[in-house]
Design brief:
single chain; 352 residues; two-stranded antiparallel ribbon
């Protein structure tokens, strides 16, 4: 690395984050009260991420066809942008620690895990905001691989086209159902420190793109039957992932909601045992693993490296399911034990 590429990468990365922050600040969006946090607060969020993402996509399309914009610059400056993202993560985490009002006795613990649950800047919730450069940055990196493949070979392969479609639809849907982010484990249980900052700004965009990276030089043609099978796997995973989360959110908003055509069945009106939640305690995690596996398998089996992503995600979500189980047992007590007797499987029926 030399100074000029690093300076260019700094402008690209910091300018991107600043534009997203400005959009988060000024764009209209529905306001929603979040879940009750361990510190007793209920933060208020502005949900304008979907509109911001649509504007980003429109800007890329307009820039490409009007001004000849090429996202392949992201590929050519990948490692410099990666370095800048790490530096920003360290600096931002120090700033979060410095501005926190209620610090604990351990600097390392507060720096790593965070000292505040929901720090804000100019009224923007920073923990929710961090999803935006994370997931939208991932979308741009993925797109850069398609731009590069087209520039090198004059076409985009079927596998690359499916990868772009699957990942973009998944990321867009994450912001279309942005209220679902508010009930995620890290939003309601974790403080905001280096662990989440680095995970959002570095781990997700620069590691979760690995299947797309290996598709650039893919030499084999994807058979039609394989494409159909992987699309079916993707749809199945999406159905589990979004369906389970939607049922949970519907039940929280209205305990009398109908699920799969019938009134929701519960334990004492507190724990849902209808639909997906009567089959497994974390089938939404199972669905997400299947989604990532489907677009990773577009690479075939020429290299083991793309499969690091679904393996990592499976280990992460399995660990998170155990942590969530402990949290729920502490919260619900004997009622949770009854729920586990009724719904025996966590993520994989008859296996786990």
């Amino acid at each position: 690395m030399s100074w000029n590429p690093l300076a260019e990468a700094s402008l690209l990365f910091c300018g991107f984050v600043m534009l997203l922050f400005l959009g988060s600040l000024v764009l209209p969006g529905r306001k929603q009260v979040g879940a009750l946090l361990p510190n007793g607060e209920r933060p208020l969020y502005r949900l304008n991420g979907f509109l911001l993402f649509l504007l980003l996509v429109a800007a890329v399309v307009l820039g490409t066809f009007t001004f000849g914009l090429s996202l392949s610059v992201i590929y050519h400056r990948f490692w410099e942008i990666f370095a800048v993202a790490n530096i920003v993560s360290f600096v931002a985490s120090f700033w979060l620690y410095a501005k926190a009002k209620d610090k604990g006795p351990s600097f390392l613990k507060d720096y790593w895990y965070g000292a505040e649950f929901n720090p804000t800047l100019m009224g923007v919730d920073l923990k929710l905001f961090a999803y935006r450069p994370s997931l939208m940055g991932l979308a741009l990196i993925n797109a850069a691989f398609a731009y590069l493949q087209y520039e090198r070979y004059g076409h985009v392969t079927l596998a690359m086209a499916l990868y772009q479609s699957m990942t973009l639809f998944y990321l867009l849907s994450s912001f279309e159902y942005e209220n679902g982010l508010l009930s995620m484990f890290d939003m309601i249980e974790e403080k905001f420190g280096f662990m989440l900052v680095w995970g959002d700004l570095v781990l997700v965009p620069f590691f979760y793109c690995i299947p797309g990276y290996f598709l650039i030089e893919q030499s084999h043609d994807l058979p039609l039957w394989a494409a159909v099978a992987l699309v079916a796997l993707y749809i199945t995973g999406f159905w589990l992932f979004r369906g389970a989360n939607a049922q949970k959110n519907r039940f929280k908003a209205n305990p009398d909601a109908r699920i799969w055509g019938r009134r929701a069945e519960t334990l004492e009106g507190r724990l849902l045992i209808s639909g997906f939640w009567g089959i497994g305690r974390k089938l939404n995690y199972t669905g997400e693993i299947l989604i990532y596996l489907s677009w990773t398998m577009l690479n075939g089996f020429q290299s083991p490296w793309p499969y690091l992503l679904p393996l990592w995600l499976a280990s992460l979500l399995t660990h998170r399911a155990r942590r969530d189980d402990r949290r729920c047992r502490s919260k619900y007590g004997e009622l949770w034990d009854r729920y586990c007797e009724r719904v025996r499987f966590r993520m994989f029926p008859f296996l786990y």
